[in-house]
Amino acid sequence: MIHLKKNKLKLIIWLLTITLLFILYRTNNELFSLSFLQEFTGNYKIIAVLIYILVLSVLGLFFIPSTPFVLAGIVLFPSIEVYIYSLIGILTSSAIVYYFAKFLNLDESFQTKYPKKIIKLKKALSKVEFPIIFGWSILPMVPTDLIIYTSSILKISFKKCLSGVLLGEGILNLIYIFSLQKFLEF
Question: Rounded to whole angstroms, how far apart are CA atoms 26 and 13?
Fold first, then answer.
């Protein structure tokens, strides 16, 4: 009973956070215009960098892909900085997602609801965890957050999970950022 109330409270907090972010966007959409963002970045670079990393850090909780935000960073910062800030944000997001799954007790919930599937999935991943996490992270059409949640639920090591994400997302973002930069210069 207490466990159920605890999970309900967590869900309510999560939904309130999404609602507050949506209201902020709807009531102050000028804060999200390109001209405002460029001016703000020029005048308050350190704050802009921290906000940029913070935004990238929370996207995973809402299954929002980071790609549009990474690409938008190109109009705000030099390419190498976008790459570094993006990886910091993506790794922070990955850590949050990994531990958020534990915080919500998703591992217990899934183990109770799908014990046979969890055992089967653990066996399939046991010898190839890193390559699967890396491969999943480098593919642009699949949500990296999903493999992170899965890794957490299956108790794959945090270090192995983040290493696979870092390598996969690192290569993918390198391609995105520097290809778009070359395209914009052309």
Answer: 20
